[in-house]
Specification:
Blueprint: E1 2-4, E2 19-21, E3 38-46, E4 53-63, H1 68-77, H2 92-109, H3 116-131, E5 135-137, H4 139-144, E6 156-158, H5 165-180, E7 184-188, H6 208-224, E8 232-238, H7 244-263, E9 284-289, H8 291-299, E10 302-306, E11 313-318, H9 319-333, E12 337-340, H10 341-346, E13 371-379, H11 392-412, H12 418-427, E14 430-435, H13 437-443, H14 451-479, H15 485-504, H16 511-534, H17 548-553, E15 568-572, E16 578-582, H18 585-592, H19 597-610, H20 638-648, E17 659-662, H21 668-680, E18 685-690, E19 732-739, E20 742-750, E21 756-763, H22 769-786, H23 791-798, E22 807-811, E23 814-817, H24 820-832, H25 835-841, H26 846-855, H27 865-870, H28 876-885, H29 895-903, E24 920-922, E25 925-927
Parallel strand pairs: 6-7, 7-8, 8-9, 9-12, 13-14, 17-18
Antiparallel strand pairs: 1-2, 3-4, 5-13, 6-13, 10-11, 12-18, 15-16, 19-20, 20-21, 22-23, 24-25
């Protein structure tokens, strides 16, 4: 795609004047926008729990191949301007032009292109790739670039704090500024002296854990103050800090408090009204462990905790015992994670400018203090050829263009603080990465946890980073190396050789991964040669980020380095609604494995019904592993995730955002093994999450397998629901009715903030048996409602119940009732349930039924079986037919909830605070499929 003016291999690097850009995706004389079909869509996003509209913008313009989900997320998240005003963006063209033209203008101003024609080609190529979802910049680019806001392009920040009160207060301030913008930050607190050391005044120091309280409260306040998403932060402490044990157990102790408060009747769910009284809940905690410490763990030796002021050992602890405490705390509450300090700094390109001491909140960006990193991720499925091969040469050209654009962004970017701006401009850290590796592996017939799958993933990652550094070396010849390069030249070259040597060690298993590895070898060799002459433009090139929102924007099936969540997914439809479909990687994988069309059809139909491939007709057992997912009937073992991380880590400049999920039955020893193997396998960072370990997790799984007998003992406490009584004065309504000639009255009382809370039924004369039974029945229903039993549950149980009196009613919406209770609960559904829930129960008003008849009804002839399996843009009538055919899926509102229906238990994932749907894992964060909100910083 690109070449260097005046030659690439000649010694005169300093005379190079710019890049020549070649066309790969575009055609000269044809604009990318003219090659696609555009259509108008209405975006209306609702909270499924109460039916309220969260966002609405009608008449937006998108290509016809963009999914409804991607359309909704881009429109609601990234379009700028007040909704309903002429300045509001309404087309994807406007969004892409706003960003791309800013990049091109800056590239021209700073001498990146050899000729004006090259800048035009660059603009067209970048536009085509974004338009066709080949890659995406991180969210801050879409939020800010080309607007009147500060041109912040980075999502990841690392701060610094020293052992002074001025520095600690400045830490609070800087974190607050970053949180205000919707980003996250991490820092290492190890410079702050411990609570076991003296102040210069003679008093005892507070210690870093005490100062964490203030920062945690600040993050919680800004989060609840209406930022674009909750604050994300990482707090790191070195393992040799004297307060490390207090730090390790901090969140575990708070988890014990949460359990006690919950059992006392307080609302301790994530986002609950009482959770704010608990401390340290707004940060991820990680311990920085050294090789010295890990050897002490191996040998059961002593390890010294050192003074922050003198560096002397002030206390010795048993290494294995401290490691057990770390694992115990992680087992109890998922914190702390580990960061392997010596491994991180062994791959550091700039050690002369300072050590790497911390990471961003999601643990993929690791570099100097007071720095930032802007990210972009490639959609790997866009490089999978029809023959099942990975298109390595096209991938190389895409990486070249993306890295060039990312480096240009630093030329015009704004930053939240001056120290961050200075460091970033001096070292120009970039973070190219990818999404959809899980889908790619499955589509090519590779199991995620297999030698072949790891070889292909390693080769692609090596090719990406090798190409990125080669382009960085070429850019150094055009616009100069990064300012800090001269001081760190020897170390930078050493790290490049380490990457190249790791690439040579990749063991390939097939033609596809072999071809990719050979391309990577070429790129590393060429990049090392050019870099030796020119230096490099960027101190860092690649990370593997969660790709939450941008993954949905690119219609990726899998995020970051993750495997597929499940084999069935939730697809939004044109005109509203959604449907269950089998992931399109499944039929592609079956064809790659050699199955015929008839076999593929039968297997896909089985997966659609069961959610897994076990006992699927005609599927050979040796192929089961190809379809293993993160959750479900055949879930990937925790060590399978660790081995995949280890396979790609040598080819990443930074690290990998990923949490290793463990079953509820996992023991503390299992956690120890994962953390120990992470160190042995050369990971830079590792975090675990044990299913159902946290109380403050809405709808967390409580039905998992029982813990092993040798697991750490834990007090078993029965959950007791809390009754929410109605206030003395509350809104109500009374409905008179007649069923089969019997007259009665239904009185319904509501909570002031909406929601049915009580009913009274008058039927028969006072003092009669019927009146007494109905009065007792209404009382029991009222108490159940106040204890949180959903109204739709009662409706589903009592509608269509048959007994006398029954027959005609005087209600125009419900002309016939099979019993008094059938009428009462269907009437309550019409009055108190939103349309989507009533649609699931088959309860409509007279006007709604008329509208359905006018629209064409629900005839079974309209069911499109092919559409169930493959449709991305199904018609609304198709959606209704599918829901009628598969009623068991109608209570799901995301892929995670759909998976819960197949599993028969809830999954550990938070509810989206914007739209109420259950989020899905994305790296070490979570992303909402409904609205694109994330819990992290990318």
């Amino acid at each position: 795609m690109t070449d260097i003016a005046e030659g690439q291999a000649t010694p005169g690097a300093s005379t190079r004047t710019g890049l020549h850009i070649e066309r790969v995706y575009t055609t000269e004389g044809v604009h990318p926008y003219d090659e696609v079909t555009w259509e108008q869509r209405d975006v209306v996003m609702t909270n499924w729990r109460d039916g309220s509209v969260n966002f609405e913008q009608r008449g937006v313009e998108f290509p016809d191949f963009w999914s409804i989900n991607a359309t909704n997320i881009v429109t609601s998240k990234y379009f700028r301007g007040a909704v309903g005003t002429p300045v509001r963006e309404h087309s994807l063209r406007q969004l892409i032009d706003r960003v791309v033209k800013t990049y091109v203008t800056a590239g021209v101003q700073h001498g990146y292109f050899a000729t004006p024609e090259d800048s035009v080609v660059f603009e067209h190529e970048l536009t085509w790739m974004l338009l066709h979802q080949v890659f995406s910049f991180n969210s801050p680019v879409w939020f800010n670039v080309g607007t009147t806001s500060p041109q912040q392009v980075s999502a990841c920040f690392i701060l610094a704090v020293d052992d002074t009160m001025e520095s600690i207060l400045n830490w609070y301030r800087e974190e607050g500024l970053i949180f205000k913008g919707g980003s996250g930050a991490g820092l290492n607190l190890s410079k702050i002296r411990s609570s076991k050391e003296l102040l210069s005044s003679g008093g005892t120091a507070s210690g870093p854990v005490s100062f964490m309280r203030g920062a945690d409260a600040s993050a919680g306040t800004i989060k609840s103050g209406g930022a674009t998403r909750r604050a994300a932060k990482m707090v790191v402490l070195d393992v040799d800090h004297p307060d490390v044990e207090e730090f390790v157990t901090t969140k575990a102790r708070e988890e014990h408090k949460i359990r006690a408060l919950r059992d006392a009747g307080f609302d301790m769910d994530l986002g609950g009204s009482d959770i704010t009284s608990v401390q340290y809940q707004n940060a991820n905690n990680s311990v920085r462990v050294s090789d010295e410490f890990m050897r002490a763990v191996e040998n059961a030796g002593q390890f010294g905790l050192r003074s922050r002021t003198t560096g002397e050992v002030i206390e010795s602890v048993d290494g294995k015992e401290l490691f057990r405490k770390i694992a115990q705390a992680a087992w109890e509450c998922a914190d702390p994670g580990l960061q392997y300090d010596d491994t991180i700094n062994a791959w550091h390109t700039c050690p002369e400018s300072g050590r790497i001491t911390a990471s961003n909140p999601c643990s993929e960006y690791m570099h100097l203090d007071n720095s930032s990193c802007n990210l972009a991720s490639l959609n790997l499925m866009k490089f999978l050829g029809d023959d099942g091969s990975f298109q390595g040469e096209k991938f190389v050209k895409a990486v070249e263009l993306v890295i060039t654009a990312m480096d240009i962004s630093i030329c015009f970017a704004d930053f939240p603080t001056e120290p961050i701006a200075e460091t970033t401009r001096k070292f120009r850290q970039l973070g190219i990465g990818y999404a959809n590796i899980g889908a790619l592996l499955m589509a090519t017939g590779h199991a995620y946890d297999s030698d072949g799958g790891r070889a292909l993933a390693a080769g692609i990652t090596s090719l990406m980073t090798g190409t990125a550094y080669r382009r960085s070396a070429e850019l150094a010849g055009v616009v100069g190396p990064y300012e800090g390069y001269a001081r760190n030249a020897e170390a930078h070259q050493r790290v490049m050789r380490k990457h190249a040597a790791a690439n040579d060690l990749i063991r390939t298993y097939g033609a596809s991964d072999g071809a990719v590895q050979r391309l990577a070898t070429r790129e590393w060799q060429l990049g090392t040669e050019i870099g030796a002459r020119n230096g490099w433009r960027n101190a860092q090139a690649s990370v593997l980020a969660p790709t939450g929102t941008i993954g949905l924007m690119m219609d990726c099936d899998t995020t970051g380095i993750e495997p597929d969540l499940a084999l069935v997914k939730f697809k939004k439809l044109v005109g509203g609604g959604s449907m269950q479909i089998v992931n399109q990687t499944v039929p592609r994988a079956l064809k790659s494995l050699g199955y015929q069309d008839e076999q593929v059809e039968a297997i896909v139909e089985y997966v659609a019904e069961h959610g897994h491939v076990v006992d699927a007709p005609g599927l050979r057992q040796e192929h089961y592993e190809v379809f293993d997912c993160a959750m479900g009937e055949r879930s990937i073992a925790p060590m399978g995730h660790v081995r995949m991380m280890a396979a790609v880590q040598p080819f990443i400049s930074g690290a990998i955002s990923k949490t290793v999920n463990m079953p509820e039955s996992a023991t503390v020893e299992d956690v120890e093994e994962i953390y120990y193997e992470g160190w042995k396998l050369g990971l830079k960072a590792l975090a675990i999450y044990r299913d159902n370990c946290k109380v403050g997790q809405p709808l967390s799984a409580g039905k998992g397998g029982e813990a092993k007998k040798d697991a750490e003992p834990e007090k078993v406490i029965e959950y007791r629901p809390v009754r929410k009584r109605l206030p003395k004065k509350r809104p109500s309504q009374t409905v008179s009715f007649t069923v089969g000639g019997a007259e009665g009255y239904l009185h319904a009382g509501s909570y002031p903030d909406d929601g049915l809370g009580e009913i009274f039924i008058k039927l028969g004369k006072q003092g009669s048996t019927l009146a007494g039974v109905m009065d007792a029945f209404a009382t029991s229903i009222s108490v159940g409602l106040q204890y949180g039993i959903p109204l739709e549950f009662y409706v589903s149980k009592f509608q269509n119940l048959r007994f006398e009196p029954a027959g005609m009613t005087d209600d125009p919406d419900l002309r016939i009732a099979t019993s008094v209770l059938d009428y009462i609960f269907r009437r309550l559904a019409l009055d108190y349930l939103p349309y989507d829930k009533r649609a699931q129960l088959g309860i409509f008003t007279a006007d709604e039924r008329s509208a359905q008849v006018d629209a064409g009804g629900y005839g079974p002839s309209e069911v499109d079986i092919e559409g169930i399996q493959t449709s991305v843009e199904a018609k609304p009538s198709e959606q209704k037919s599918v829901e009628a055919a598969k009623p068991e899926t109608t209570t799901a509102h995301s892929s995670t909830e759909l998976l819960e229906l197949h599993l028969g238990k809830a999954a550990d994932a938070p509810l989206c605070m914007t739209c109420g749907t259950k989020m899905r894992p994305a790296g070490s964060c979570y992303v909402c499929e409904g609205c694109g909100s994330t819990s992290g910083c990318s």
